[in-house]
Design goal:
Oligomer: single chain
Distance between the termini: 39 Å
Order of helices and strands: HHEEHHEEEHHHEHEEHEEHEE
Largest sheet: 5 strands, antiparallel
Radius of gyration: 50 Å
Length: 460
């Protein structure tokens, strides 16, 4: 009994998890990208607003260059309307700072803020300033009056804009989570439908045994899984045919082996050990039966190998040489009028030994169905795409009722009680080459012509 490994996760589960991870990773990456882009946009918009305030101040002072620095700052603050979260400060040459905008104690009470302004009073610039958990963007513009320096300061609260971005991200996360749930649910349903053929294939394969190979998958759809279903059904067809052929061959082989074994036992039981003539006669008969069984075993082994990929070994074979070798071997089979009609020329991609085996089998079959002196012809011809060998004889021929089954295993004729495996071997060799063996239609009593047609190249 084959133990099946415990399945921790099914293909469907792994597919759903993979989709969930990919979609979740994509949503997360999009969220991070949005946060980075929007954060930069917030900083750029704040810096642009500060730069705009400075530009407006420069434009105002350029219109009245005779005013002092403090007066310029006083005049600018008087006509400036700060935006939400914005405070415009003036740091005069003498005295304390003044501002316009919403009062923000985080800045008013922070000595660090004053130190930052003093640090930038001479050079100017933009800095980020944190106070009491809030973040500000501070810009300082120096204003010279002789050897004294005043400063225009603009501070904008960045925290409010960041909180809006954080709220947007929370909304995005909730929507993304809902979308992920919907995608996982949809992918679970879709994976179940897509993988249903595989589930049916698994269940069918689990239910199949050597005795029940008639089950088939219901072919549905027009995709790769449909091709898999068709391929699986075709495999079952081949397995069913192979098992049926195997069972029939074993039954026939058992029947055929039982007969010579019965003959062996019967003659051994009635043999008179003290009668040399009886012993010699029994010995000859038993050896003949043993030869018959040995031939049967050898032929069964050849047929068993016929389905293996290494049954034939293709290589370029010279056709005239092959024909001459077959003809020379055939003359030793029996005392017949052996003739040749070998016209095939050139080379063909064949297994020379297997083709010789098939032709010798056809020649032996012809010899066993003819009499001494009868004519047997070995012939061949070729074309650019195929090569054909044939063996013809002047024997009694094949009865019409046996023409359809003459190549089946263990088929016998009334004129010969052999095992009937020879022509099956010839057929197996032909099929392994991508060809076939045929019997010509001829009137009864006019002999038989068996033809072996094989492709010339490896387009099989």
């Amino acid at each position: 009994m084959v133990r099946r490994p415990r399945v921790a996760f099914s293909v469907r589960s792994r597919l759903i998890v993979a989709i969930a991870v990919l979609v979740g990773a994509a949503l997360l990456a999009a969220g991070v990208a949005m946060w980075v882009v929007e954060s930069r946009r917030i900083d750029q918009s704040i810096d642009a607003a500060i730069a705009q305030e400075f530009a407006e101040f420069r434009a105002a002072t350029a219109a009245d260059p005779g005013m002092g620095a403090d007066a310029q700052l006083e005049s600018f603050l008087a006509r400036t309307l700060p935006d939400d979260g914005e405070i415009v400060w003036m740091y005069p040459t003498t005295g304390g700072p003044k501002y316009i905008g919403d009062s923000d104690r985080n800045l008013l009470d922070s000595p660090r803020f004053s130190a930052l302004v003093e640090d930038l009073r001479a050079s100017g610039g933009l800095r980020t300033f944190d106070a009491a958990g809030a973040r500000y963007r501070v810009g300082v513009l120096p204003v010279q009056e002789g050897d004294r320096t005043a400063a225009l300061v603009v501070s904008r609260d960045r925290t409010q804009a960041q909180e809006q971005l954080n709220d947007l991200l929370i909304t995005y996360a909730l929507v993304g989570l809902l979308a992920l749930v919907v995608v996982v649910a949809a992918s679970s349903w879709l994976a179940g439908r897509l993988l249903r053929p595989l589930t049916l294939l698994r269940d069918t394969a689990r239910d199949i045994s050597a005795g029940s190979l008639d089950e088939r998958l219901e072919v549905t759809g027009h995709d790769d899984l449909t091709d898999l279903q068709i391929t699986f059904n075709a495999m079952l067809d081949r397995l069913e045919a192979a098992f049926a052929t195997q069972r029939r061959m074993l039954d026939d082989a058992g029947h055929e082996l039982r007969t010579p074994l019965t003959v062996l036992r019967g003659h051994l039981e009635v043999m008179a050990p003290d009668d040399p003539a009886d012993v010699e006669e029994t010995r000859a008969l038993l050896l003949d039966e043993i030869d018959r069984m040995s031939r049967l075993v050898d032929e069964l082994l050849v047929l068993a190998k016929a389905r293996r990929p290494d049954f034939i070994r293709l290589e370029p074979v010279d056709l005239p040489t092959l024909g001459d070798g077959v003809a020379a071997r055939c003359r030793a089979l029996a005392d017949r009028d052996w003739r040749t009609d070998l016209s095939a020329e050139g080379e063909a991609l064949l297994d020379g030994q297997r083709v010789t085996q098939a032709l010798l089998q056809l020649a032996d079959n012809a010899a066993r169905h003819t009499q001494e002196g009868d004519l047997i012809t070995i012939g061949s011809k070729s074309s650019p795409t195929s090569v054909e060998f044939w063996v013809s004889d002047t024997g009694p021929g094949v009865p019409p009722e046996l023409r359809e089954e003459i190549f089946d295993r263990f088929t016998t004729t009334s004129s010969h009680d052999g095992f009937g495996l020879g022509l099956s071997i010839v057929s197996a060799i032909a099929e392994a080459h991508g060809g076939r063996v045929t019997l010509d239609d001829s009137p009864a009593g006019s002999g038989a012509v068996f033809r072996l047609r094989l492709p010339r190249e490896e387009d099989r």
